[in-house]
Protein 1
Amino acid sequence: MLFSELALHERLQRAITTAGYTDTTPIQAATLPLGLKGKDIVGTAQTGTGKTAAFVLPILQRLLDTPPTGRTRAVIVTPTRELAEQINDSIKMLGQHTNIQSATVYGGVGMFPQERALRRGVDIIIACPGRLLDHMQRGNCNLSQVEVLVLDEADRMLDMGFLPPIRQILSAMPKERQTMLFSATFAPELNRLVAEHLSQPHRIEMGFAAPAETVEHALYPVQEHLKVPLLLSLLNDTETKSVLIFTRTKHRANRVTEKLERAGHNAVVLHSNKSQAQRQQALDGFKRGKYDVLVATDIAARGIDVATISHVINFDIPDCADTYIHRIGRTGRATHNGEAFTLVTTADYGDIRDIERKLGARLETRTLAGFDYAQQGPSRTELDDRPERPQQGGRKQSARSSSPYRANQANRPAAPQEASAPVSPRQQYNTAPPAAPRQHAPAPAAPRQYNAAPAPAAGRPFNAGPKAAPARPQSAKPRQGPSRPDPMNFDPNYKPRNRKPGSRPARRG
């Protein structure tokens, strides 16, 4: 089906022509006619098949056909900030010849700019559930006149625990509305949500959830310590445009990025520990071609729509088959060809079987020509290349290593055929002195008589009290100082001056 065959507004047709779109994708051809009629839709399709335009165009068409009300008329709920910005970019592109206003609402940034935009009034809100609920509780937005609601990547929002906020958001909207729910996979928990909040929805399922047919898969078996060298060899020997590399943890993403930068690649990292400004800067730079390689965690498995991504490399295998589908869906988008490489170890074969069972096909196994798979490496992963701790001087002694038994063992003389190792000053300090020979207890002293003078000692005993002051010579002049009144000679008739009865003396100073 062609976009020109749809009953779209002339302004929207001009924007579609400017964007270079002519043919609709299967999900768009099945969804757009129903969405333009105001029907509720539940759409499940392969990732990267154009679901965003499938619900953005019906929203823009509805807002153009009806007069504005000055309040929010459409709400799109997404799980991540990146996906919210991507949808907002699509709205701006397809609605560039209209006066429709949109705003993104998500956490990680200040609330004042969002509050100002919501109070000024926008037609479409693209929001993450948690931050949208915060604005609702503060009275910054009114959803009582919402006409269209879209739940995008609904299964992902359920996995992230957004179901309670979504229910509160739905309760603040009128029941008479158009609701469209889209997802790459349809979890069983969504059936109850659909039954409660959608009115006779049309179910559209474009095959099973799998990557597009334009993606070519390959597995590269490798030992754990050879992952980084193999990754660098793949990037050097493969003709690529933009490469997206997925890691399992944020720490590994940082380490892989450092290795790539040292090798001369223009790489940038993206994960949840980065601020929103850093994440947006990295994503914009990757889209514009400023960076050739983007290393990210699964936060980038959804919400990144870059047509120039030619390769997706799984440095770490994902935790489940659905995550693999979402990762691979970042390439081969919009009828473009792409390749997906996965570095696997012997511990990953169980996950590979689950992925192959989900895809219904066996993945191809490859080896890189010219790569030395027999090179030796450390027992732990090469990413953890922290310097070893010094064995002498700077190492902290534990309680066990500083015990007297170990100290005595260390003080034993070495064998005649071996030279004794030098001992650091810290080890000498921590070494316990040799124990003195045990002596018999001294005989008990005779009991001291009451008020008897102490026996003269030959020398000053240890831990004795302070030395007594020497006797002052008789010829020394006595110390002069202010005399104190004798308490025994107190005058009972003494009265203080300038003091009234019952008053307190004046405070001095």
Protein 2
Amino acid sequence: MNTSSRIRFWMLLSNLWLIGGGAWAYQWPVSPFAGPHPISATMGEWRDNPPHLHAGVDIAREAGINVYPSVTGSIPNPARERPEDPLPADVYQNGHYLKVGDLDYVHIVPDQSIIDWLRENEGQDYPVTAGITLLGTIQAMDAAHLHLEEANGGANPLRMGGLDNYEDTGRAYVYTLEFVREGTETILTDRIYGKMDILSRAKDSQSNGSATVSVHRIGYQVKNSQDTIVLGPLYNLQFDSTVGGSRGWVYANFGDRQSNLSTYYYWVTNTQSEGRYWNTRLKTGQLWNGADAVLNSEAAYPDGRYKVSTLAFDIRGNGGNLDTSEGAMTVDIDVDNFRPFLERAEIRNSDGVTKYLHTWNLNGTALEKSGPAPNEALGDGTYTINLRFSEPVVNPTVAINTYEGTLTLASSDPAGNQKNFSANFSVGNNSPQEGLRTMTVNAADLAGNALLLLPVTKTTINPGSEITRNSEGTMQGTPGSASVD
């Protein structure tokens, strides 16, 4: 080997190491190879023709720019299975793409010398060298770009270990957070019930170029009124590999979301392979699609006020910050599957002895009245009425007929979870007239539903027809005063 050959050989090895970055990394396929270059689209964006999720990254460069391999390898050139099948060279030439190993380079005009070689050497692969072999040029088209994709379900080319000098310090944003009845186009705004899809519009602002692209992963989180996480955070959508399965589950395509904005609308509750939802009526201990609760006390997400958040991140981890709202949005929403009812009524004397007790308990599939037991006459003295409701309520009132005093209900429960209330009254001055008296209770839950009417003669409640909201969204049961004898 002469001196000049040694120099060229050493320069080639240096190129392979420095710009190839080792077997675990890609160089940029356009000059300068160190990059980074503007990205105009990432994985996970919706495409209508044909319907699919974008499975690669678009490098925004003008038409005619030279394209080189990101890795050293070869262009496959298999023999034809049938004589009438086109040669791979014809497919490459007509399809505006080339494959090198597991990487597809799309929207390019292949170099003619490669096409000619593939035709002349059918069955032989064409060897290429990263950053040296000219693959072709970027095709002339609107918004010209090179689409780079890992074939056969490969990973996101922008990941660490891919184009690992890719920089993205821009912010991910969540623009909308909506609740849609599962399987419908009905958007609920102030109260939700049943199976719900969380729909969000989320984007990533790029620090390399002015393009807005898809977020890398997106999920949701649910907190109850006590600020405790009861669901999530669940990152159901993560665009780090070619997305398979029922891809239509993950994007919105109804109403005004059928416009190009649908590119960034995601069904956050879903996965990449099947349609899921947040079942707000899910029975405790069940999976996401398990049995529904028939009573509020059985529900994994009992009626009340919740904070629901959508969290979005770009591929470099920017976003998902609830404190700064970077890549996050939170809304307050009422879960409202059941009508409230008076679950328990008790009267105690000043010594704490129960003189009256009335409850409703689940017996099989029905609620049955228990009591009043005990039911003792109230003599002179001070008494406390204790009431427990089936869910948090607001503005409860209690009255005893013929009693002239004021009964003021108070609760020690934390705000947003007030189910237990008490009031004091005296028998003696201003006491009820002797005889059987009726205590009447009124209240409404956080969503504004009045208590279920429970006349003194009622002994059984069917939850399915008197408490639970039906599939059409109508609240069951007759509203009114919850009375106990």
